[in-house]
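User: Show me an example of a complex going from sequences to structure tokens.

Assistant: Sure. Here are the input components:
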Amino acid sequence: MADKSHLPDDRTPWPELGDLVRASVERIRHSPPPPESLSRALERARRLGSPRPRPWLARRASLFAASAVAASLLVGLGLRYGPNPFAAPLDVPSGRGGDLALMGPGDLRLSSDTYGQFSPAPVPGGTLMLVPGRVANAGAPGDDYLTIGVAQVGSHWGAWEQVRALREVSRAMPQADRKAVEAYLRHQARPARRPAWVKDGRPLRQARIAQDGDGRELLLEGVKVAVRIEGPRARTLVQQVFYNPDDRPLTGTFEMAVPDGGSPSYFALFPGNKTNTEGATWPKDVTRSPAPARVALPTPEEAMKQVDPSCWGRPRVGCIVPVPAAPEEPADPGPLAADSPGRARATFRGPVGTILPRAHVCVLVAYEETLPFHDGRLVYRYPLPETKLYDLAVVVQADAALAPGARLSPGEGEGQTADGLVTYRRAWKNARPGEEVVFTAIPPSPAVQATSCKHGDGRYLVARLRPDVPAALGEAPFARHAVFLLDTSAGENAARVDRAVQLMRRVLETDASIAQFNVLTFSTGAAWLEPGGWLPNTQAGRDAALSRLDGVVLEGATDLSAAVEKLLAPAFAVPAGLPMHCFLLSEGRLSAGETDGPSLVARLEARAGSRLRWHCYQLGLGDENADLFALLTRAGGGVYRCPSEKDVPAAAQAHRRPSLRIDRVAFEGGPEATDVLVSGRRAAVYPGGDLVVAAQLSRAGPTTLVVEGHAGDRKVTQRFPVEVRDDGQLAGRAWGELAVSSLLALNDPRLEPAAVAIASRFRVASRATAFGLFADPRRWEAEPPPPPGHDLEALLDGAWKALGREATPQQRRDWLAAQLGHWVPLDAVRRDLRGLVAMLPERELKLPAARLQGGLTRRAGADPAYLAARRQDRVAIDPVLDEARRRLAAGEADAAARVLCGLAEEHAGNPDVARLVAYHLVATGRAALATHLLADQVEQRPHDPAAHRALAVALDEAGLPGRAALHFEVALALLGPRGGWVAGAREEFVFLLRRRLRDGQLPEGLRRYFDEQLARLDRHDKAPLQVSMTWNATASDVALRVTDAAGKAVQAPGRKPTWSASWPGRGG
Amino acid sequence: MTDWDRIVREHGSVVFATAWRILGHAADTEDVMQEVFLQAHQMQLTQEVRCWEALLRRLAACRALDRLRQRRRVVPLEGLSIPTTADDPEALAVERELDARLRQALGQLPRREATVFCLRYFDDLSYEQIAETLQISPGAVATALHKARARLETLLLEAAQEK
């Protein structure tokens, strides 16, 4: 029997099938899955999170039996007590919700027969609508009733929402039944909290190719590493040979650990060839020069050309593509990306397509990095594989000037010097020589290490400068006032807050230059610990402050912008321009208010100038705020680690180091320099710190880098001579890397095209770009995106200043119009909605201000049951809702809103919870706050109609009818005429239109638009009554409305209105 | 500990594609995908999963076929009102009807036969791979496949005659 091939090209078209079946099979096989649907489904599956092993479940079969009994009991109870969705026959697959419409004037009965015809099952959310009168675009005249868009609502729910809804239903039951339901619900899975810091279970020291499916790894047989060091930069080119021992082709995923600050710069994979199954032919070694007379190691491109495709297969070469653009060729499996480029131990990973059976695979991968400088030495490290390899070789090549004092370990042997380069070689067979290869060298000048090269038409230089920071002898301290910004949000960890308070005490005790201080606590809203003014930095003052922090309950979202507002406009008298130390004690990701770090810091700088010096502390292991901290401290202050109690004394002293504030970095004499970039836009240097500077230069030749700044009140100028040469290789990409990171750091979408263009030219993977694999890279590289036609320095400065300015109404209008491109896929709808955006009044272009009175909740002020429930399960939802309800009843609306917002923080990334919180905020009269929360959801999920619908509801309640109409329109456009719950959204929109037209407060243009839309949407004017029942997907409270033809609510029969059903202007 | 993200990343598309080919309906496929991963998620709490691909593919095929059987007279909303730009709309309609009939017939086959047929012809798996996925012998795969083909021909013929 001939070997069967499963390669698509070799397959015969199923001769055993009949013609009709074969044709159908072929069509079905080639019908592409809808990409949006696929990504939605994948996202939902991901949300399940890694399961915690619970072996006791396997042993306790009785628990399952008990659960089954309880479930049966629940269904019975639901049928007996539940509102209509639960009383319906269960003849449709479960887990689905929908919008239902029942036509027929006068027929408002909800018999189980009629209801059962289109009941989607016992679902806890969705919208049931009973609409007497014609329903637009549905059915033929004369039909008794018909369904509209049954389906798809279920896809918006999380499992916990169903639990929540069942619990809501049980509230109406007798005590005993409710307990039975609770007993059942206790066994339901709870949403897992998103960990603040994720670490792979297994450290990845080398690269691996894992088979898709069972995750088995291909055998790594050989590794050759060629390292080139130039100035402060290094390029590591790794050649790996893997072997697929399987008898079948497989698809795999490549993964490689990239060191701190490393950036992948090249990738090529040779998938193997049938003629080289025994690995008889090895690829030419990357540790050898391409030509006998040449000393320099090969570049990645030269190394790729050295591999023989007849032995190793046709290479798949990585080209930079914009994310999320997918490669075009069918054989191309998808982009490879570094998961956190530039950060510690990023993983470069991606699918690499089909690997042939019993084939050797050759991978060429390169990354570049700026080498650390410790104790006067440059240090390079490369982690060695965990197992013995058949073949392992490492070669390090650097400028000959580094040879004195240089050392490569493990192994012995001096470097060989030739052509101005020194080369160190190590090779091992069937051995594991150690944990890592380490190369250290003493650079000729510790103050500056530079390299330059010609790249394309341009010349580039990158330099690391270590300016001398003069000691601040006898100078006045920067400030005598200090503000401690203490994060008390729900996302904080109690132990870390405790450490933050310890740190605060220690700073105050040891820094006598701080005469007065205050504490600004923030979560959702911010409040001064001492609203009356400054506290003296004395024992009594410190005790008074810290005693007020005893027994604080951590709750609310992380809104640093609220704290910044209070800081810039304190309630007590502060002289204008008073310099202050600001100690930021927060580990939480910004989750409320202004969540964009660059915008927040740019505005802060624009308003406060340089009178605030920020000191940020990393109290845990997470680095979520690394970018924000870097921005806050770029012109002074610093970021200090304090991960444990023993670090507190040192951390408390760290802010007192002298610093050099940088005013200007420029080139003097020699070739003309343009696009001068400073890494991280640093504007201050501390002793031992450095500045990485890159620039484009007009020609080769000597030049001088000048750093001007201030040390205290003294002006300081330092000069660093450098030589621009054409013989380097690494400076061009270093400049590109710096340019891309500078552009992307501002989070401004308008800068992304420029970042993509530069990334394509220099092969920089970033959050905007990834490596796509192409069999023929020339196709992609033939038309790289055009480079930006601006002076990059000016572009970045302009963007930063623009971020710091309040947007004008026209800019807001333009932004909104531009967003339509992301929200709405149809051109025609976009055009119509642009018209609506154009007629929005100015006040609706900006979301309403949503500042809560901040404050602290102490244990004594919270319900003990709530505290106990939170101790037991920090992410539990019901206790929080109950506590919010209690506070609202006690007249503490802001405190209720604060506890609710904590839910969103605890369940970050869960849109269902965000909507739940938002709906309850609306119910507490904090619709403005809800609009901010929901606007974030829209930004994260621009194509989710549920997000737009929820935002529209909140905007309407917040008094922005035009903006609400816009989002209703977007939701309807995304749902399409037959989408799930389209009838519900349409009906809500009609309510909005009618109510606002009745109010008569709309501007003329908007009134006309509302009139037109009402005429288009409303087909029920002649109906005497309109009944709609909504059980919204999140709160799962049922609201039954009966309205007259004018849209006026006349009755709300059915369930007793619950807390969240009593929205102003809604419900019964 | 199971790297769930990786499992979803590596197998999510396969699960979706398997269900999609059987159902041809986006919302149903999303629901099946959810059911499959939920079930797999729960299964791995109590037992070790040796081969995720096989497990997920098997679950995907079974759940999709279950859904196919439940469909009865529910007509997918997709395709009903979408204007076509094809040169021959009539031919397209005929093709769609044939595909729907094939899916309908698959829903009438015994589960094992339908699953084997789908894995073989829709997912392009070899006999050995199907055997590994369904944890049956390659001989049983061959038998089920033979029966599935024969039954399908009969069912499609009957449907054509009724028409």
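The lines above are the inputs; the final block is the predicted structure for all two components together. Residues 661 and 684 of chain A are 4 Å apart (CA to CA).
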